[in-house]
Design a protein that fits this description.
Elements (H helix, E strand, L loop, with lengths): L1 H8 L6 H36 L30 E6 L8 E2 L2 E2 L13 H5 L6 E10 L6 E4 L5 E4 L5 E5 L2 E2 L3 H15 L3 E7 L12 H13 L16 E5 L7 H15 L4 E4 L15 H6 L6 E5 L14 H7 L3 E7 L13 H11 L5 E7 L14 H9 L24 E2 L2 H7 L17 E2 L7
Parallel strand pairs: 1-4, 1-14, 4-9, 9-10, 10-11, 11-12, 12-13, 13-14
Antiparallel strand pairs: 2-3, 4-5, 5-6, 6-7, 7-8, 15-16
GO molecular function: chitinase activity
Keywords: Glycosidase, Hydrolase, Membrane, Transmembrane, Transmembrane helix
InterPro entries: GH, Glyco_hydro18_cat, Glycosyl_Hydrlase18_Chitinase
Length: 455
């Protein structure tokens, strides 16, 4: 009250000798009041703001909608180099051991786990769903195969069914995958549909199939609408072409497929998965012509460096040639273990390090894909930590001593002089059987590799 009186008093005439003094007192009083008001306001607002946000050293976590892996990842993703994981085919169930087929059975309970489990490991940047294995042939039928989970089928009339090895099952299992997709995406992981797959799968491309398939994919897996949406409301981040056979219309229809999808879903990711083998003509026969004619359609290319011994380390690794074939981002496709690459190509940590020593600093090197997540992560019967090794390597850690420069380039005609269960197994042990001088081995479960003769 005194300060207010002083402020009022300053308007009353006063003797000239005290006038200056009173003016100073009023000014000081005003400043004091202003400081008090400012302090009060700060005291009120700062706590309010702090109460609505978390301190910088606290992380808020939410419970996932899907039961997932509860273990804490020992490493985290590095945004510079990507790790792509294939999910859906349960490669761990191939039942292939060092001595051939059927020698390493894996119990069903230890095979493919739910998609969210692998996303929770913290290794992967992108998950590829394998495979849309059936489509084309002039109508709108299609099929989705997730191996140990089952198949989701749509017939030419639009009828929907699901089965496991021919036995009808509920479509709820696929809806659960949709929830896992959304969970993975909420954690920054892209989820992409892989179409094609094995060359023996029942897919075909005849004139008109490219546009038809583009609309099926858009309506069933991307932003469109359809009664046939196996993953429910989940919207995938993109599509990759893993086409492993060819025909008169395959190239043109793949181009139309991608062009149509880019128009329908311009923000989606698009890629291709060629075999590394260049067939003497400078390209993979299947997706190679599309990559060569329309490179602008692809965000990146995954080169399959397994089941392709003529172009894989340590006997002809041809990544430098691919940097000239496609000028964009390149991903090195590897196997998750020996059984995931039955005809060879698995790289142990030393071989992996040798490959990364060659490519890591190349500006086109985008990352590694692993086929698949079931065979490259731990289970009681398969204590593999290969995906963790890949993640560490991509983060810049050394995972092995590396190997000397690779051997000479080989051709298919040189494979017929050595026999072994798998390429990796034979190369590591050198316990090679005697071989024949033709295309067959005494044991039909074994392959022949002449280039191992000096192992």
């Amino acid at each position: 009250m005194d300060l207010l009186n002083d402020r009022l008093d300053s308007k009353v005439p006063a003797p000239s000798v005290t006038k200056g003094r009173r003016r100073r007192i009023v000014l000081i009083g005003v400043l004091v009041v202003a400081l008090i008001i400012i302090s009060a306001l700060l005291g009120y607002f700062i706590p309010k703001n702090n109460s609505s946000s978390s301190p910088s050293n606290v992380t808020i976590s939410t419970s996932p909608t899907t039961p997932t892996n509860t273990s804490t990842p020992s490493i985290t993703r590095n945004s510079a180099k990507k790790l792509f994981g294939y999910w859906g085919q349960s490669a761990v169930g191939n039942y292939v051991g060092p001595l051939g087929l059927g020698t390493r059975p894996i119990p069903a309970s230890e095979q493919q786990k739910g998609l969210a489990y692998y996303c929770d490991l913290g290794y992967y940047d992108v998950m590829n769903l394998a495979f849309l294995y059936k489509f084309g042939g002039g109508d709108v039928h299609w099929g989705l195969d997730h191996s140990s989970l089952g198949r989701y089928e749509v017939d030419a009339a639009g009828g929907i069914s699901a089965n496991f090895e021919g036995t009808p099952i509920s479509t709820d299992a696929f809806l659960q995958v949709g929830k896992d997709i959304q969970y993975c995406q909420s954690n920054g992981i892209k989820v992409v549909l892989s179409i094609g797959g094995d060359m023996h799968s029942p897919y075909n491309l005849i004139p008109g199939d490219g546009a038809r398939l583009a609309n099926i994919i858009y309506n069933s897996f991307l932003q469109g609408n359809s009664s046939a949406r196996p993953y429910g409301s989940a919207i995938l981040d993109g599509v990759e072409l893993d086409i492993e056979k060819t025909g008169p219309s395959f190239t043109s229809e793949q181009v139309i497929l991608l062009q149509t999808l880019k128009q329908l879903s311009p923000k989606s990711i698009f890629s291709a998965v060629p075999q590394c083998f260049l067939n003497g003509v400078g390209m993979d026969y299947n997706t190679g012509p599309v990559i060569k004619s329309n490179p602008e359609l692809f965000d990146y290319v995954i080169i399959q460096y397994y089941n392709n011994p003529t172009c894989s380390y340590p006997f002809g690794f041809n990544y430098p040639e691919w940097t000239n074939i496609f000028k964009g981002s390149l991903v090195i496709g590897l196997a998750g273990d020996d059984t995931s690459a039955i005809t060879g190509g698995f790289l142990n940590p030393g071989q992996l390090q040798a490959v990364l020593d060659q490519v890591y600093k190349d500006p086109q090197f985008y990352g590694i894909s692993v086929y698949d997540v079931s065979s490259s992560n731990p289970s009681p019967s398969l204590p593999s930590t290969y995906s963790q090794t890949l993640r560490k390597a991509l983060n810049g850690e050394r995972v092995g001593s590396g190997y000397p420069p690779q051997g000479n380039f080989t051709t298919e005609h040189q494979w017929a002089a050595r026999c072994a269960g798998t390429w990796g197994y034979a190369n590591e042990t050198c316990s090679l059987d005697s071989c024949k001088d033709n295309w067959s081995c005494a044991d039909p479960t074994k392959m022949c590799f002449m280039f191992l003769q000096q192992c």
